[in-house]
């Protein structure tokens, strides 16, 4: 497998595969009009649009090409309707809008342009998911690791597999490891990637399906065969409003398993529609019910005696994570290269996807054991320093607690304690900030609150909320909880405070390559590079 971190446009192999997803020629707009009408989205269409041919698709006016279709999407900071005239000046042949605007091109008026964008993308790229076996993975934590494990299992069974995930995409066996911050891309990018996978010879795709992507309809038009649920905890309530709405968004992935107009049966590859559920999670019943209501098969995993794949043992010998489970084929054993006992659940989720499509247990185990690491997840940094340094993407209360609880025994066995460095994203769920501060203070000798992606929020106010939670758990400002906005300085401070045997967790950024500031500005970021630099400043070198 080829892995090539992108620097500018250097990864031509990946980009060539992605470009293979671009259709050639034109398609009649009348086809799309009929699809929008069938989906109940079309409010009105102009007369005379029957002869219009479309030669491209864009929802950013700067990317419109002559003959293209422009979809005006009301956004968080800008409204696409303000740019319809500009799209027309760039040669757009037509536009999709939620209300008519002054512009010299035909306009299709729809009830919701984001939903229409998904219909348009699926139409323009020729429904690529109909030609792939598609596994969707949702949950608060563990999606990326589960996606990588699932892809490894499929690859071991002979299914060349593409990936859309937080840490990047894979097309035709080539990985891109520098993605944008959003996990599930907008519908055109997603459908283009799926089409490129087909062109590159992929037979299956694993798609991380976030609550945002599900609620906003970015994944509409993706024909899922298998849906996997990892777990559910407090996250993204800034967007969803309530935990119930958050759960409903996640559950909708399982509802999409139903065979019908939006997800017709597929002749290729013919995988049975199946829901794979972590039966130990408190929210499991909602996902089990959704799978059954969709008429899908059900595979459950967990410690529950009734689980189809029942976790019976987890042991970490310092080199491998040994996972044992009972399933339809009897007792199975896998020695994972991944650190973190919680990865036992991610491994069983991937094994559940294998069970769903009837893979041989030997292939499942071979795939689980083949994955060497997941970038930014429980990633160790060791240049000879007398304390541990671990990088992890944990950015929810549950994930932070799990990682700290995983690291605590190692610190204790070496006579050390935990230090945590993390922040919380601006313009995102504010309720979790004091929760994460409390969780860290309950487990760590020192908590350092620092920037993650402050965006347009007051960075210091975010850190204050984290520190408030830490204080509520008994931490003392200026001593056991510090606020250092500059992340590089925060990492340096943590290392200077570390004692032999301690373990320092750098949480929240993981694989991400930028820190997002106000007005859309971003500064380059490399968490591991910053850690190595800080250790070098203290005199440690590989």
Description:
With 542 residues, the chain is of the alpha/beta class. The protein folds into three domains: 27-124, MurE/MurF, N-terminal domain (Udp-n-acetylmuramoylalanyl-d-glutamate--2,6- Diaminopimelate Ligase, Chain: A, domain 1), CATH 3.40.1390.10; 128-370, 3-Layer(aba) Sandwich (UDP-N-acetylmuramoyl-L-alanine:D-glutamate ligase); 379-537, Mur ligase, C-terminal domain (Protein-Tyrosine Phosphatase, Chain A, Alpha-Beta Complex), CATH 3.90.190. 34% of the residues lie in helices and 21% in strands. The protein has 17 helices and 27 strands. Strands 1-12-11-10-13-9-14-15-16-17-18-19 form a twelve-stranded mixed β-sheet, with helices on both faces. The protein has a six-stranded mixed β-sheet with strand order 20-21-25-22-23-24, with helices on both faces. α13 runs parallel beside α14 (432-443). It is globular. The relative contact order is 0.09. Residues 1-10 have low confidence and may be disordered.
Characteristic terms for this protein:
alpha/beta; Udp-n-acetylmuramoylalanyl-d-glutamate--2,6- Diaminopimelate Ligase, Chain: A, domain 1; UDP-N-acetylmuramoyl-L-alanine:D-glutamate ligase; Protein-Tyrosine Phosphatase, Chain A; 6-stranded mixed beta sheet; 34% helix
Quick summary of this structure?
The protein has 542 residues and is α/β, with parallel strands linked by helices.
């Amino acid at each position: 497998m080829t892995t090539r971190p992108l620097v500018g446009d250097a990864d031509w192999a990946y980009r060539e595969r992605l470009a293979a997803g671009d259709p050639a020629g034109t398609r009649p707009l009348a086809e799309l009009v009929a699809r929008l009408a069938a989906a109940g989205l079309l409010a009105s269409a102009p007369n005379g649009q029957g002869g219009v041919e479309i030669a491209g698709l864009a929802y950013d006016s700067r990317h419109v090409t002559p003959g293209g279709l422009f979809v005006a999407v009301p956004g968080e900071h800008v409204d696409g309707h303000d740019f319809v005239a500009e799209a027309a000046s760039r040669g757009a042949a037509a536009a999709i809008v939620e209300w008519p605007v002054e512009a010299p091109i035909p306009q299709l008026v729809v009830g919701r342009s984001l939903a229409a964008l998904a219909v348009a993308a699926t139409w323009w790229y020729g429904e690529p998911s109909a030609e792939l076996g598609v596994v969707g993975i949702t949950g608060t934590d563990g999606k990326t690791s589960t996606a990588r494990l699932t892809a490894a299992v499929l690859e071991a069974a002979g299914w060349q597999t593409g990936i859309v995930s937080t840490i990047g995409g894979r097309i035709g066996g080539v990985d891109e490891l520098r993605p944008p911050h959003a996990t599930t891309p907008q519908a055109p990018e997603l459908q283009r990637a799926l089409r490129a996978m087909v062109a590159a010879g992929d037979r299956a795709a694993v798609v991380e399906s976030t609550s945002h992507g599900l609620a906003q309809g970015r994944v509409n038009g993706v024909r899922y065969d298998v849906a996997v649920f990892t777990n559910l905890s407090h996250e993204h309530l800034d967007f969803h409003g309530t935990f119930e709405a958050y759960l409903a968004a996640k559950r909708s992935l399982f509802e999409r398993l139903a065979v019908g107009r939006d997800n017709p049966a597929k002749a290729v590859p013919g995988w049975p529609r199946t829901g794979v559920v972590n039966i130990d999670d408190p929210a499991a019943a909602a996902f089990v019910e959704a799978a059954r209501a969709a008429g899908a098969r059900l595979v459950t995993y967990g410690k529950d005696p009734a689980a189809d794949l029942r976790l019976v043992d987890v042991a970490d010998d310092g080199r491998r994570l040994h996972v044992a489970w009972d399933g339809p084929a009897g007792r199975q054993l896998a020695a994972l290269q991944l650190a973190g006992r919680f990865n036992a659940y991610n491994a069983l989720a991937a094994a559940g996807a294998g069970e769903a499509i009837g893979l041989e247990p030997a292939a499942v185990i071979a795939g689980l054991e083949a994955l060497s690491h997941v970038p930014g997840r429980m990633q160790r940094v060791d240049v000879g320093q007398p304390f541990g340094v671990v990088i992890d993407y944990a950015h929810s209360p549950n994930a932070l607690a799990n990682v700290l609880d995983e690291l605590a025994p190692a610190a204790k066995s070496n006579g050390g304690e935990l230090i945590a460095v993390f922040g919380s994203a601006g313009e995102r769920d504010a309720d979790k900030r004091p929760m994460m501060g409390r969780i860290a203070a309950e487990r760590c000798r020192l908590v350092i609150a620092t920037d993650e992606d402050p965006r347009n929020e007051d960075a210091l106010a975010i850190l204050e909320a984290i520190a408030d939670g830490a204080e509520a758990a008994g931490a003392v400002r200026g001593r056991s909880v510090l606020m250092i906005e500059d992340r590089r300085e925060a990492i340096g401070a943590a290392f200077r405070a570390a004692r032999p045997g301690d373990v320092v967790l750098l949480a929240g950024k993981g694989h991400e390559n930028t820190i997002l500031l106000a007005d859309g500005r971003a500064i380059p970021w490399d968490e591991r590079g910053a850690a190595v630099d800080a250790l070098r400043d203290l005199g440690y070198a590989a």
